[in-house]
Amino acid sequence: MSKFLMRDKQVYGILNIVKKMPLSKMGNPKYRVEINGDIFETVNNAMLGYAITNYDNKNVVAQVRYLKTKNVIDNVIFRRTLDNDFKSKNKEVKKWKNNTWKS
Q1: Domains, the chain, ranges and CATH?
Q2: Could you tell me which of 69, 77, 89, 92 has the C-alpha nearest to residue 1?
Q3: Predicted TM-score of the model (pTM)
């Protein structure tokens, strides 16, 4: 496991859940995940433990940091790519703003 020299860092890539860890002492879920070959764990008692399964095998942007003896993941969002769906939504918004919207 590589150590990060920076306090916080953004990592881009496909998130894969490696292992479900034992529950925290308060009963909250915890996971070990992999992004671009680096291994991270969710923080104890974090809300991310409940939501991280929604990001499995998805392209994400993750906020990560080095905490005591391990790399931890603090936040995850879907990575927005400029695909055709995104471009078409932009065109629809422009039409609506220009009052040229057609049903």
Answers
A1: 9-97 (2.40.50)
A2: 69
A3: 0.68
